[in-house]
TrEMBL record:
SMART domains: Ami_2 (SM00644). Its EC number is 3.5.1.28. It comes from Streptomyces brasiliensis. GO terms for molecular function: N-acetylmuramoyl-L-alanine amidase activity. The lineage of its organism: Bacteria, Bacillati, Actinomycetota, Actinomycetes, Kitasatosporales. Keywords: Cell wall biogenesis/degradation, Hydrolase. It comes from the Bacteria. This is N-acetylmuramoyl-L-alanine amidase. Pfam families: Amidase_2 (PF01510). InterPro entries: Amidase/PGRP_sf, Amidase_domain, NAMLAA_amidase_2, TAT_signal. PROSITE patterns: TAT.
Length: 199
């Protein structure tokens, strides 16, 4: 879907910037502008991945979504966004959660297939959530990161009818064929699943 949408013209970009202070309802093309930045999770900030880094699709119409896959970036939040925006990297995730405050960025629409699991079957059927941090540095796994990520996962589970358990909310390390270890032994799964269930 994103792939076929034309890039906004320079005129429109400039016009958008100049009219940033004008009340929303006065803009004739406000709806089209909002659509190009739409997110699936209301409080997420749209930070588009390069269209070269995911597969455009029409989920859940063409592929059922029945898993959430939890990752840890091994990079900073800003570096992760720039990797997703780099067309040569061939990697992306639907969401990225920032360590310090749990801020959520959406980088790929949920209708599309992000490239995060390293396994096509698991990519097609899952939503991928990256968390800023390193597997061997538990201080990155803050209360805010757990709580806001859990709320995001809970919303995804509600939307697709995914059970809120460890059979359906997986670590990257559980994906068949992967050599990744994230989110690693410091990730508190008991706490996380509890938060998802009470979000
Ligand atoms: Zn991962």
């Amino acid at each position: 879907m994103d792939r076929t949408r034309p890039l906004p013209s320079r005129r429109r970009v400039l016009k958008g910037a100049a009219l940033a202070a004008v009340p929303y309802a006065l803009l004739p093309d406000a709806r089209a502008g909002a659509q190009s930045r739409a997110v699936d999770y209301p409080t997420a900030e749209w930070q588009s991945a390069s269209t070269a880094n995911y597969t455009a699709a029409d989920r859940p119409m063409d592929h059922a979504v029945d898993r959430v896959i939890i990752h840890v970036t091994q990079e900073s939040y800003d570096t992760t966004l720039s990797i997703f925006q780099n067309s040569s990297k061939k990697v992306s995730a639907h969401y990225l959660v920032r360590s310090a405050d749990g801020h959520v960025a959406q980088c790929v629409r949920e209708t599309d297939i992000a490239w995060h699991a390293g396994n096509w079957d698991y990519n097609t059927r899952s939503i991928g959530i990256e968390h800023e941090g390193w597997v061997d540095e538990p201080s990155y796994f803050t209360d805010a990161l757990y709580e806001r990520s859990a709320r995001l996962t809970a919303a995804i589970c509600t939307r697709y009818g995914i059970p809120r358990d460890r059979e359906h909310i997986l670590g990257h390390y559980q994906v068949p064929g992967t050599d990744h270890t994230d989110p690693g032994p410091n990730w508190d799964w008991v706490r996380y699943i509890r938060l998802v269930n009470f979000a």
